[in-house]
Amino acid sequence: MTSPSVPARPALLGGIAGLDAAVSLRLHALFLPVPRLLKALEVTGDGRICLVIDLALVGLVKVIVRRPHSAYNAKDMYVTVAADHWSFPSGHSSRAFLIVAYLAAVGFQPRETLFLWVAVTSASRVLLGRHYVLDVVVGALLSVFEAWLNNLLLRFMCAQSTFLVC
């Protein structure tokens, strides 16, 4: 049996690449006894499930309700991209609350920082004229539903799969 070939070190990283590879391999070997836990963290921590649920539900509600943005919504979104023409509910508010819920659940400290960030982010949507207050409130409430749905989905996935630990 031949040993796997060692990839060439990237010139930009120089000698640090070898040290990095050795440390990474050692950490990987140390945690081999707990692959199920690590796989569960991978599935829950990458955000794909929450993001997909959020984009689908917010998009669906926007298409159903079709509430236009306020007349005073400036057309100056140069950095951000408006994915739709509808205001209700606020996707920014929904995703911000999802992020805060996740970070609070995993023990991020200080929590006050999270709540300040989500409050300011959500308020900015109204203050910038992008959304109405109800858009932001419903976006936040929708994220509570999404967090519950995500938890339900993960429990189902854990029950159906041998590689997840819940």
TrEMBL record:
Gene3D superfamilies: Phosphatidic acid phosphatase type 2/haloperoxidase (1.20.144.10). Pfam families: PAP2. It comes from the Eukaryota. Signal peptide: none annotated. SUPFAM superfamilies: Acid phosphatase/Vanadium-dependent haloperoxidase. InterPro entries: PAP2/HPO, PAP2/HPO_sf. SMART domains: acidPPc. Residues 44-151 form the Phosphatidic acid phosphatase type 2/haloperoxidase domain. One of its GO terms (molecular function) is sphingosine-1-phosphate phosphatase activity. This is Phosphatidic acid phosphatase type 2/haloperoxidase domain-containing protein. It comes from Setaria viridis.
